[in-house]
Amino acid sequence: MHHRAMSRTKSVVISLSAMSLLAFGWAHAATPTSKLTVDTTKSGAVIDRNIFGQFAEHLGTGIYGGIWVGTDSKIPNTNGIRNDVVTALKAIKVPNVRWPGGCFADEYHWEKGIGKGKRPVTLNSNWGGVIEPNTFGTDEFMEFTRQVGTEAYVSANVGSSTPQETAEWLEYMTSEKETSLAMARRENGHPAPYSVAFLGIGNESWGCGGNMTPEHYTDEYRQFSTYAKNYNPAQTGDKRMKKVASGANVDDYNWTEVFMKNKSGDVDALSLHYYSGFEAWPPYQPASGFDETEYAKVIKTALRMEDLVSKHSAIMDKYDPQKKIALAVDEWGAWYKGEPGTNPGFLYQQNSQRDAILAAVSINIFTRHADRVRMANIAQMINVLQAMILTDGDKMILTPTYHVFKLYVPFQDATVIPVTYEAGTYTRGGITLPRADIIAARGKDGKVYLSITNIDPTQPLEIDASVLGLKAKSATGETLTAPKIDSINTFDNPNVVTTKAFSATARNGSLILKVAPESVTVVSLD
Question: Does position 3 have pLDDT exceeding 50, yes or no?
């Protein structure tokens, strides 16, 4: 889409060093130019920090080995939880973590995961049919959220449980009164009630969560919600527990229609699940070692999120024009073929520069719909699907996707600033995509932040920007680039894909940002 740029103020020249240009082989390549206008005199919706939420399911090594190693492990830990993982997650300011699933949530019975003695051993029937030792349960999860400094998004079992079990779980977690369940929590080491910021009432109730019709689920939601009470006296007003209904799978617009039309009681959000990376089930793309056409196909699937969010939001607008109910995209990300030699039920896949681009364009879609999309949870946090972190014994690496989330920290609770720009086009294998994907926002620190994603893996991109309402004198930031579109970080070479610094000062009254192919760049203007 092409937009006419508005009048310009004094601006900034930002460029990579000649060494950096040569390193990526495009110093003398033809460089497309895109005109950009950033209007700081206007503002849009607040970008809720919860769109940067994470998801930790009892799946593969996402929990055991990824978070939990036990107190007797030689891997450095605090109360059984990996120190390196906690440090990495604190650096990206994780706002919330969804747990224990996923499909696992609707076969999870919380009482099997508490207590100081030996806990019942069960089967994880959804993910590999492996043993579930239940050594990581409610108290361990809450300890994890405490260490990371994040909020708990607990998924309640609707598919194979009862409203009573959910009510008693909440009493165990949140009651300050001397009930038997609250006393059990105290005996298990936590005298004060826990804070449960979000409660998911069922997961994928159209599928693994019970194979329900939307009409039946809507009735189930009403019943479960009635008895799902939070007793923590600190959780009132703006801090009250928010309830998330199980929403649609991809483009099941009828599910959204039926639920919104027939809902009653407390509903704070309705979920949406969409995985990109494939056109038809099952996922077949390799996570690494792919070519440029496969790259284009995957990014095209990611951009479909715009259509899905727009159409589900339009249905919600009919019944909730004030947008009181959020659209929570609480499962999103790339789903590829599992890595060779791994258990296919563990969903372990590598993470490339392609995934960095995919993450950035997805987050940008959420920000453009920030008035309705106020929560999102990438799947998943560690060792599963599009992970932030991969671990192997005592080793840990940060993925390209992690680095995107770190770049975007300033956008948490920032206010959208409107931008218009010439997106241009990139074509490969009969697929045409926008070349540029750009957003801007005013951070809580008052600074203006600009994110530029160059989807084109073959050419750099030059942004000729006008910034209305701001006389920028300097700019600083970081860019995430890689030698190839399928570059990955490995345990032997963990820094193939990592960020590099940007800094510049005003020159010649222009703001020119020249960014690398297949790159994500975030700068602040001062």
Answer: no
